[in-house]
Amino acid sequence: MHTTIPEKLLALADEITKQGDVSLSRLTVLKKWFARPARLPAFALWVAAQALARKGSTAGTAGVLFRECQALLGQIAPYAPHVNRKAAERLYERLRSFQDEYRQQAWGPVRVIHHWNLLLVEQALDILLWHADSPAHGYKLAADYCQHYDPSYGNGLNGPSRRKIKEMARFLQAFEAAENASSNR
User: pTM score, two decimals?
Assistant: First the structure.
């Protein structure tokens, strides 16, 4: 089923070009797209694949975790993700414990993240395992994937976010095309 959500994302990328930045909340348009069954797990797997492809140089435990994530998630069909649940749960727990440092702030404890891409994979596994029907979790994953901190704009959607939003729009278009092709059979 074709939606206008990819076009809205592309318009959002254009708006960033014109204004410099926009609020992360503008990605809430994705919640409607995620409401249709099977879309959110496929999106979560796609974000995990993007994060694993952008890992940069990692060593030690982080490098081992990246390789384990690639081994488990690299074998999953992108538009119909089915994951070995036990292996995914073990990996999720390892990812969670790897970045289990908290600092006390005035308003409460804050989780310290050293490897953002591993956090994105962790969130994707969380969706695949427990929240495949939660558009709110999908929105959070999309926001975390697209946001970019820039001291002149703050934490939101700005220059470098444009490329990620366009990539996301292309994924949504490709997924919808695959959906339409399978429903026309």
Answer: 0.92
